[in-house]
Amino acid sequence: MNKKYLVITTGGTIASAATEKGLAPNMAADELIAFFQPGPEVELAVLDLMAKDSTNMQPEDWLLIAQSIQEQAEKYDGFIITHGTDTMAYTASALSYLLYGFNKPVVLTGSQIPLGMQYTDAESNLQDALLFINDTKLKGVFIVFNGLAMVGTRAVKTKTQSYDAFESINYPYVARMMHGKVNQLYQPEPETLPLQTGTLALDTNIFMLKAFPGMTVDIFDYLKTHAHGVIIESFGNGGLPFERRNLLPGIQSLTDAGIPVVITTQILEEGQDISLYEVGQRVVEAGGITAGDMNTEAIVAKLMWVLAYTDDIDEITKLLQTSVAHDMGFV
Question: Could you tell me which residue ranges the L-asparaginase N-terminal domain spans (predicted)?
Fold first, then answer.
């Protein structure tokens, strides 16, 4: 029997062309799908969902993509999403949670240079996405880019122009596509479903801070009345200052108000060991929730997902520190 896949187009560089104000998406979905080269046992359909520069991608768009996949789930063996690169990792993470437990592959891809332009990487990325989805038995959400497949919650865009724009951070690449063949590099371990909400929902009322020397403590007064959850990108292994501009009372104040404060690190690789230093242990004592080796992109999406499910801070902490879609705990 032929395999059937749905290509969902959302815009991005891959579907862009030059305008007076720079590159902007304008390629029709039917035109984009013509660049695929499916084999005789593969059928492709296309859904023209949106045409956005991914800078404009919002959580409401994540929900629309997830809903579209759920609605078409019985008709297709898998889904390929063409997407802009700037927020692709956020979308991949969000879909990993919204579609957690989905028993079919969902692959996001895009390009650094638009289709139809000289030296474009779009055609190879499209073909690699199709090759990966058709030749592996992996389920879940993945990004395929520059010949590599990576778990959706572990992908991070690390380069603005080069073809190898994405890296799998703190987790192995799952496959490599080369010369029309797939070499599976890693088999993700099965996980136990931590929750089942039954609905697609996100609480977008979160705030993210990047710590820097001299950061004011006054920001916490604002957050206490305006945010349902806070993420802080700390220094190193999870430390935040407690001398002079002491941030710890602000964290404690939020925690006491039932507002979760997730502590991640500004360092891209190797995660955090928040108990290693006094500056980290004090953050935990103030109520900070360590995020281990999770990427910031995954933390943003996961916190929105968890807050839509519960407002109990103990349950929030438990879910945030439980591996979902292979988002933490590898290193």
Answer: 6-187
pLDDT digits (tens, 9 = 90+) for 267-302: 999 998 888 988 889 999 999 999 999 999 999 999
110/113 Cα distance (integer angstroms): 9
Q: Examine the domain organization and report whether 111 and 166 are in the same domain.
A: yes
Q: Confirm if 142 and 108 have CB atoms less than 8 A apart.
A: yes
Give the residue numbers annotated as catalytic, written as ranges: 13, 85
Closest CA to 249 of 291, 288, 276, 212: 288
pLDDT score at 197: 62
Farthest-apart Cα atoms in the chain, separation: 68
Domain match, 128 and 35 both: yes
CB 93 within 8 A of CB 306: no
Torsion (CA) 262, 263, 267, 268 in degrees, nearest 10: -30
Read off the pTM.
Answer: 0.95
If asked whether residues 51 and 116 sit together in one domain, one would say yes
Residue numbers belonging to the annotated binding site for substrate? 54, 85-86
- Is position 325 within any domain? no
303: in domain? yes
CATH number at 7 reads: 3.40.50.1170
Query: Using one digit for the tens of pLDDT, what is the confidence trace for 162-200?
Result: 999 999 999 999 999 999 999 999 999 888 877 776 679
Tell me phi and psi for residue 281, to 5 degrees: -60, -35
